[in-house]
Design goal:
Length: about 230
């Protein structure tokens, strides 16, 4: 991920011709706005002016590094599920979802660092899955992956659900900055997209809390876009 953000481009010249002097000091928001040099052997330069990077960039770099650790930690949760099912077989009157939810809530609170790493890993894996789907030209997948990441995180326990909410809010703030100042989208479209993203985030967390052992792909089947190959679910 790039470690710098170019805020604008400034045309600079030492003079020499009226065409160059007319462009001296002019600012351009994107590289596409910069005009061609007015004559052969033009010595004018384009200076790049750095802007402030959004804080979330460092966060996503950290997420990338933690994916491996998060995947290995998922094994512990699978072991817990097996142990809970064994307990349930002895006490048939117990609701398995309630038991699993309570155990995972306790586990997430007692192991906050592990919970953080696993939640970051969930968000990272879904983020990269979204990028891969978009590279294949599969549009309309972002809301599904928003909901799926939050659902998987919420299934880990109450602390992971709260971390997922914070990460989702941070991601929306980053997207707002990027869409408004880099992609130059209208404020109306930015707010609409953000509201739809947050609705998907909330639904994912709510369903993850309600169904702690169901496959998120089954819970969120209604959000899977038509034509999305199953390998991207």
């Amino acid at each position: 991920m790039s470690d710098r953000l170019i805020e604008k481009y400034v045309w600079e010249t030492d003079g020499g011709c009226p065409a160059c002097e007319a462009l001296d000091g002019k600012e351009f928001k994107t590289i596409d706005e910069i005009p061609d040099k007015p004559h052969p052997n033009c010595d004018c330069t384009i200076r790049e002016v750095d802007g402030e990077l959004c804080d979330c960039i460092e966060l996503w770099d950290m997420i990338d590094e933690m994916i491996g650790d998060a995947e290995s930690l998922k094994l512990e949760v699978e072991i817990e599920i097996t142990e809970i099912k064994n307990i349930e077989s002895e006490y048939s009157g117990i609701d398995s979802d309630d038991v699993i939810r309570a155990v995972r809530d306790l586990h997430s609170l007692l192991n906050p660092l592990q919970t953080l790493v696993m939640t970051l890993g969930i968000f990272a894996s879904n983020y990269f899955a979204l990028l891969e789907a978009q590279k294949k030209g599969l549009e309309g997948t972002d809301k599904f992956y928003h909901a799926k990441a939050n659902c998987e995180a919420a299934q880990l326990g109450i602390l992971s659900s709260k971390i997922a909410e914070g990460l989702s809010n941070l991601k929306e703030l980053a997207d707002y900055y990027d869409d408004l100042y880099v992609h130059k989208k209208s404020l109306e479209k930015i707010l609409k997209d953000s509201a739809e993203d947050q609705e998907a985030n909330r639904e994912g967390r709510e369903l993850g809390r309600k169904y702690p052992i169901k496959n998120p792909k089954d819970i969120l089947r209604h959000r899977i876009p038509d034509g999305l190959p199953e390998k991207y679910w």
